[in-house]
Design brief:
The chain has 278 residues and is α+β, with helices and mostly antiparallel strands. It has 4 helices and 12 strands, in the order αααββββββββββαββ.
């Protein structure tokens, strides 16, 4: 069907308005994917801030390398084709160029390696923890326990009636802000992976093995992740929801959770002692 210029203009305007609405709607949401997002999620921990900085450094380096190679290819095509250069050069060696194309890549790799090793050390060197949470991957949900706070445990399942879609859960993992949280994780059946992009953490949950990682959330709010290891038919339906709160709110949640999860069935919300532990 042939469209007039006015129809084409209106359709393009509609796409533009829809795109702006999606972008505006996603920009206000932190701790989860945004519509049309092509960058990393907004950082909520020092580790993730360094991951983003390192990522941006690599983007600049690879862009410069790509443009440099493109320029060389254009020069070769234009200057050294059969028409422009009917008598080819018989040069076989150029010491300066050979030293340069050996030394410059080495320097580039060193420039990448230094921040890379620094970031790797920061991720793997777990500081003294203020709180330990054990996350156990199961088919197909997560179980959380707080060994430092009364050893209670609860399950966290995806809630179909909660937003955001496929990320909302019935029982969230709750942690205090500006505290070092040590995550100990294992698998109860198959290999899972505990990953929260805004925190910059991703670690396998392996049956029979206890792996550790850490984060220090600097902003309150809700943050979402998912199992990042293909673990079976419901792999896509075991989200991770972490609620970061102030110290006083966390202390109240712990006291309520001790009562709730000691008596109430897992995977259901209930008020404990007059408080909703959500």
């Amino acid at each position: 069907m042939k469209m007039s210029n006015g129809q084409i203009g209106r359709r393009l305007l509609g796409f533009l308005v829809a795109g702006m609405a999606l972008a505006a709607g996603g920009a206000a949401v932190a701790g989860q994917p945004k519509p049309w997002e092509i960058t990393l999620q907004e950082a909520a921990t020092p580790v993730m801030e360094n991951i983003i900085s390192f990522h941006n450094l690599l983007v600049w380096i690879i862009t410069i390398i790509t443009l440099f190679v493109l320029v060389l290819l254009v020069i070769v095509v234009v200057k050294f084709n059969a028409k422009a250069n009917p008598v080819p050069s018989k040069t076989t060696h150029n010491t300066l160029i050979e030293v340069a194309w050996t030394l410059i890549p080495v320097l580039i790799l060193v420039a990448i390696a230094v921040p890379s090793f620094r970031l790797l050390f920061q991720q793997l060197d777990i500081p003294k923890a203020d709180l330990t949470v054990k996350a156990t991957g199961k088919q197909w949900y997560w179980s959380y326990s707080y060994p430092d706070n009364g050893k209670f445990e609860f399950d966290s399942l995806m809630a179909a009636d909660k937003q955001p879609r496929l990320l909302g859960v019935d029982n969230e993992m709750v942690v205090p802000v500006n505290k070092v949280i040590r995550i100990q994780t294992t698998g109860a059946d198959v290999i899972h992976a505990f990953a929260v992009p805004a925190f910059g953490i991703k670690i396998d949950s392996i049956p029979g093995r206890l792996n550790e990682t850490w984060f220090k959330a600097t902003k309150t709010g809700m943050y979402y992740g998912q199992c990042s290891e293909l673990c079976g038919k419901d792999h896509a339906f075991m989200p991770i929801a972490v609620r970061v709160v102030e110290d006083q709110e966390f202390a109240s949640w712990v006291e309520a959770a001790k009562k709730k999860f000691a008596t109430a069935p897992a995977n259901t919300y209930a008020s404990a002692g007059g408080q909703d532990v959500r």
